[in-house]
Specification:
This protein is α+β, with helices and mostly antiparallel strands. The chain has a domain at 1-106: HIT-like (HIT family, subunit A, 2-Layer Sandwich), CATH 3.30.428. The protein is built from four helices and five strands, in the order αβββαββαα. Strands 1-2-3-5-4 form a five-stranded antiparallel sheet. A hairpin with a 2-residue loop joins strand 1 and strand 2. The protein starts with 8 loop residues before the first helix and ends with a helix.
């Protein structure tokens, strides 16, 4: 799919981990430290388009990446979010899973992680008003994660 940002070759180069047709990338607009995405390399808009083996590989990889991120970011908990369809908050029409490592008091009182994630639905990834890491910071974080992943 030519206009899909997750199908462009540049996204694969930003991956810090890959396994069995899936990649892990750090979110360019993280809502919390460690916020990353699991993305199948093959374009799928729906989980229902995948075979049982592909689903198993996707979630097995997500579990490994989640454990890795929790260790790297010294988190003792995590949230997953898979939003399928616009009404559910999916902003990119390519299946992906958000992994958000969590720590005590990582959000202000009354602030909810899912509310912050949903807010991103209304802000396009290329919107100047959306909090984005600089290319330098993004490359630094991705490089650190890539090197740490290789050492496991």
């Amino acid at each position: 799919m030519n206009n899909c940002p997750f199908c462009h070759l540049t996204i694969a180069h930003k991956a810090f981990a890959e396994l069995d047709g899936n990649i892990a990338v750090y979110n360019i607009s993280p809502i919390l430290e460690g916020h990353s995405l699991i993305i199948p390399v093959k374009h799928y808009e729906s989980l229902f388009e995948m075979t049982e083996d592909e689903i198993s590989s996707f979630f097995s990889f997500a579990r490994k990446v989640t454990a890795f991120l929790c260790e790297i970011y010294e988190a003792d908990a995590w949230d997953w979010s898979l939003q399928e369809g616009e009404e559910a908050g999916q902003s990119v029409k390519h299946l992906h899973l958000h992994i958000i490592p969590r720590k005590p008091s990582d959000l202000k009182e009354g602030e909810e992680w899912y509310q912050k994630l949903r807010q991103q639905q209304f802000e396009a990834p290329d919107n100047n008003g959306r909090h984005r890491l600089s290319e330098t910071d993004y490359s630094k974080i991705s490089g650190h994660l890539r090197n740490s992943w290789k050492k496991q």
